[in-house]
C-alpha cells in the first residue's frame, strides 16, 4: 500500500499547519459544520486509489478555519498543569503554545502559500496567538501578553527548521504519517462519504488488526476533488467521542493575499530571539525537565545526571511498547513513603496512577484514553498506546 515516495514528500512539504500538536493530539466532538448526517453520493474508490489520491495532491495555497481538540481523559489536576484552559497568555514561545493543545478545544485560522509562507492564528476569546512563517523568518505573537518570539529559519543542511516543522503539523502530514505507519498490522478500507467544511469527501479508515490497542480506528476525510486531507480523527477502542480530531470547518483554495504573512512587532512588545537547529531540541528537552522539576517532589524522577534514557522497543504495530531505563535513583514507591514528599505530589500520583504488580515487580500505571505508562519501582518506564492489561502483559515478558 506504499504511495509514491517522491510525491508523498511533496504533499508533506506543502502541508498547512493546522494541528501543531502532534498530536497528537488534536480533537473536537463532531459538529454539523464538520459532517452531514448523510454523506454525498460519490463514485466508488478502493483504499489503494484513495491513498494514491492523497499522495498525488499538490495543493500549495489555501486559507480557512479549523477546529482542533484533545480529550485524553486526564484527571482535572493534570489538565490544569497542562494549561488546557486556552492558548493565549504567557510567553510567545511556540513550544509553550504547543503544550496547551494537549487539552480542550481550540479554533485556528490558517493560511498557506507554498512552502515558505504559512500562518496560524489561535483564537481564544478576544485574545489571539499567531505563528507566522514568511521566508527566512518565523514569528510568534501573543496579543494578551504583548510578547513576540522571532527565529531566523536558516539552518545548516540537514537540520530541521522551524518553518519546515510548521508545514509538517497539518492534516496532510498527519495523514501521511498514519499511512506510513500502516503496515501488515493495519486493516485499511474506505468508509462512508462525508461533507467536511462544505466539501465532498471520502473517508479512509485504518483499524488495528491486533488486540490490546487503545486506538479503535483512524479516519481520514479526503477531499473528493483535490485529494487534500480535510480532517483526521483518532477514535478510542472504548468508544465515545474522539480522542483526537483536527479538521477544517471552512476552507478556500484561492491564493491568500501577500500581506497575510507580513508581520511587524507592535510598539512596546517584548521581543525574544529563538534558537533553531540542534540546540532547539536540547532547549525543548531542558524545558521538559524544568517543568517536571518545578512540581514539588516529582523532579527526582527525572534521574538527574544518572538518567540513562536507554530505550528498547517491544512488540510491533499498534501494540508497540517502549521500555525506558531512566536510571533514576528515586522511584514512585520511594516518593509515596517519604514523609518529606509534599502532599501535592502524592495527590498528583494518586490522581493519575493505579498500583500494579507482576513478574517485573511492582509499579504504578499512569493512564489516559490514548497512552498508558507503567513506572516500575526499579526505575523502568513502559509506555505505549495500549491498554493497561496489554502494558502489564508486555512488561511481564521482559527478562
**Helix tally?**
10
Low-confidence segments, given as residue ranges, are: 1-37, 76-89, 154-169, 277-282, 284-307
CATH topology of the largest domain: outer membrane lipoprotein receptor (LolB), chain A
Structural class: alpha+beta
Under the CATH scheme, which class of the largest domain? Answer: Mainly Beta
| Strand segment count | 19
DSSP helix fraction? 10-25%
Q: Report the end-to-end length measured between terminal Cα atoms.
A: 36 Å
How would a textbook summarize the main sheet? 13 strands, mixed
Percent of residues in beta strands: 25-35%
Q: How many domains comprise the coordinates?
A: 2
Q: H/E order of the elements?
A: HHEHHEEEEEHHEEEEEEEHEEHHEEEEH
- What sort of overall outline do the alpha carbons produce when their principal axes are compared? globular
Instruction: Write out the CATH superfamily name of the largest domain.
Output: Lipoprotein localisation LolA/LolB/LppX
